[in-house]
Amino acid sequence: MVGRIAKTGMVTAAGAMSGTSLDGVDVAVLRTDGERIDSFGRSAYRAYTQAERETIAAGFGQWSGEAVERAAEVVDAAHAEILAEFSDVDVIGFHGQTLAHAPRTHGTLQVGDGAALADAVGVPVVWDYRSADVSLGGEGAPLAPFFHHACARHIGAEAPLAFLNLGGVGNLTWVDPRIARPETEGALLAFDTGPANAPINDLMQARLGEPFDKGGALARRGTVETGALELFLAEPYFARMPPKSLDRNDFAEMIGLVGELSDADAAATLTAMSAAGVTEAMSHCPTPPDRVLVTGGGRLNPVLMEMLRVALDCPVVPIEDVGLDGDMLEAQAFGYLAVRVARGMPTSCASTTGVRAAVGGGTLSHPRAASAT
Ligand SMILES: Nc1ncnc2c1ncn2[C@@H]1O[C@H](COP(=O)(O)OP(=O)(O)OP(=O)(O)O)[C@@H](O)[C@H]1O
Ligand SMILES: CC(=O)N[C@H]1[C@@H]2OC[C@@H](O2)[C@@H](O)[C@@H]1O[C@H](C)C(=O)O
């Protein structure tokens, strides 16, 4: 039936992700049955303009009101534009844009209207991935771990390994690929490691009017201020047992810790903080992973990568080393999860978000014209 998703077999999904660093929208296609990855397909990127970025950023940390509505309009329009080129897929996974995330108190907010997007593109859309998990007591994040598990099996990994996403916020997934189902106890442990690029970007913007520290060039010229690093590591977040998750700006005050330092020393110290969050995280892994596969923009920062290599006891490599796409992994994840949601399969469990029982989070919206047939 037009606009319906086959109940079995491989389907083609496009995932769309707008991450916390607000560079733009990533879209990536894959073929999957919601369990196994068959193949990866084409991808596309739609950058936000500076004006769009500012409109979305004005909504950060807010739960409702005009700034949130304006941000949602920008997110909807950008996604409708880029996804118009993907109307040939069976299902779209639409993450939306996280504006605020406080699972224990307020909940979690990803703006973007998946029902309207389904109508606009003419393809079923899975969206609002995090709310169900939060309403059942989970953190609502991270959600990529079930996909990381599928990736580990796809690349033929035979021993526990870790996926590290270094976006605005960092998140780590420890995977035992020998366990067939991600929701089985012992297959996964996942949580946010701490800030990754967000404080570095904020520093660069505030001090130099640049969006990020390209190639870690500024940090490379600086010296790490160990006093500030120690204060950072005293944050109770690091001692907390996982699962745990963060909002983009939860560590925004870190900029204050480096306020008196030169630009280069401040950049070096914030970069060291990101690496230290990951080092702390490794101590929570059930067994030492045999390697860490790094995804997200932070893998392109050689200073951050060097700090991780010095601190960790196993190889730390960009995820391209195993043939995966570090720019598109999150978009692929939400395409993969869309198929799972459409087929009633779980997308998170106690060891990824802390939710009591495995849950399939996400709303499936069919294009209205198609569902009327
Ligand atoms: N060449 C580079 N050198 C240094 N840093 C880089 C480079 N390229 C990207 N980055 C950093 O990576 C960031 C983008 O990372 P990414 O696209 O993974 O974030 P995101 O997906 O928006 O975040 P999240 O995963 O938290 O939602 C940039 O804002 C920048 O800080
Ligand atoms: C609430 C939210 O949007 N969290 C994001 C953010 O960006 C990285 C980290 O914090 C992770 O928890 C999550 O994104 C990835 C894609 C995830 O859910 O796996």
TrEMBL record:
Transmembrane segments: none annotated. ATP binds at G19, T20, S21, L22, D23, G24, V25, D26. Its EC number is 2.7.1.170. GO terms for biological process: 1,6-anhydro-N-acetyl-beta-muramic acid catabolic process; amino sugar metabolic process; peptidoglycan turnover. It holds the Pfam family AnmK. InterPro entries: Anhydro_N_Ac-Mur_kinase, ATPase_NBD. Pathway: Amino-sugar metabolism; 1,6-anhydro-N-acetylmuramate degradation; Cell wall biogenesis; peptidoglycan recycling. GO terms for molecular function: ATP binding; kinase activity; phosphotransferase activity, alcohol group as acceptor. Gene3D superfamilies: 3.30.420.40. It catalyses: 1,6-anhydro-N-acetyl-beta-muramate + ATP + H2O = N-acetyl-D-muramate 6-phosphate + ADP + H(+). Keywords: ATP-binding, Carbohydrate metabolism, Kinase, Nucleotide-binding, Transferase. The keyword Transport does not apply. Catalyzes the specific phosphorylation of 1,6-anhydro-N-acetylmuramic acid (anhMurNAc) with the simultaneous cleavage of the 1,6-anhydro ring, generating MurNAc-6-P. Is required for the utilization of anhMurNAc either imported from the medium or derived from its own cell wall murein, and thus plays a role in cell wall recycling. Belongs to the anhydro-N-acetylmuramic acid kinase family. This is Anhydro-N-acetylmuramic acid kinase. It comes from Sulfitobacter albidus. The gene is anmK.
